[in-house]
Amino acid sequence: MSYAKQITLPHALERKPPPFEGNDIKSPESLARFVIENYSKKDGKVFDPFTGLGTTLFVAEERERTPFGMETDGEKYEWVAAQLENWMQLINDDAAKSDQYGFPKMDLVFTAPPFMAQNHKWNPLYNGDPKKAGYDKYLKRMGVIFKKMIPLMKTNTHLVIQVDNIKQGKVFTPLIHDLVACLKPSFKQVDEINVKWDNSKEDYSYTTLVVFKKK
Ligand SMILES: C[S@@+](CC[C@H](N)C(=O)[O-])C[C@H]1O[C@@H](n2cnc3c(N)ncnc32)[C@H](O)[C@@H]1O
After folding, report:
1. pLDDT beyond 90 at 157
2. What local confidence, expressed as pLDDT, does residue 163 receive?
3. Is pLDDT of 16 > 90?
4. Which residue of 21, 46, 47, 71 sits with most ligand 1 atoms within 8 Å of its CB, as the best mutation to test the pocket?
5. Could you tell me how far CA 129 lies from the centroid of its own chain?
6. Ligand 1 atom 3 nearest Cα
7. For residues 153 and 145, what is the distance between their CA atoms, to the nearest angstrom?
């Protein structure tokens, strides 16, 4: 299998982010549009376990899909829910508990998970709980959370993740490779798409979409 695909998308952030956004990466709407249009159909159900500022969910509604999501951060949850038509399908809780909310079967799972550099201790999946510190625990938890997506997905549907490798000073974190390794026991990788950002800043000119199917 070869993963040679490359596409170019505009980097514009169309929806003004809220003042409390902090350092979290908001995905451009163009990326969600590409994924939603290519991997789901009109009236399909789209799930984002790490909703963040809601890009997947807003674009799903715009493209006449039904959005579902989870987000642990209460401020973000409220900001997104207030702007969604289907706000009751966004849950303010840990994505590891996705099996507790009676979600229907989805046509697409698309997300940008929280990123972590391998030399950091603060684990974003546990909001920095010191008992859960470190990259190993982060990767293990990612495996647990994504495994829970399997029963949520209809047969022959896709899980698509947006992920970047991280370079900070001399430390390189091969996050794409490491997250793919966490997901491989549960999913079959079917594609990897290199996305070149048009009109973006020099220091952020690419991202990656990794496409999986249920095994
Ligand atoms: C990279 S952001 C998603 C950005 C999103 N694509 C957007 O455009 O805004 C990841 C989000 O995952 C949330 N998060 C972290 N751990 C979580 C967990 N265990 N369950 C659900 N959400 C979580 C964070 O609060 C953050 O908002």
Report:
1. yes
2. 97
3. no
4. 71
5. 21
6. 52
7. 14
25 lines ligand 1 (CB under 6 A): yes
For residue range 95-138, what is the model confidence (pLDDT) as tens digits? 999 999 999 999 999 999 999 999 999 999 999 999 999 999 99
Q: Tell how far the Cα of 203 is from the centroid of ligand 1, in angstroms.
A: 22
Closest CA to ligand 1's atom 5: 52
80 CA to middle of ligand 1, Å?
12
Nearest ligand 1 atom to alpha carbon 95: 20
> Is the shortest distance between the CB of 13 and ligand 1 below 6 Å?
no
Domains of the chain: 6-14+24-214 (3.40.50.150)
**Contact assessment for residue 98 and residue 60, using Cβ atoms and an 8 Å cutoff:** no
**For range 170-198, the mean pLDDT:** 96
Q: pTM higher than 0.85, yes or no?
A: yes
| 72-101 per-position pLDDT tens digit | 999 999 999 999 999 999 999 999 999 999
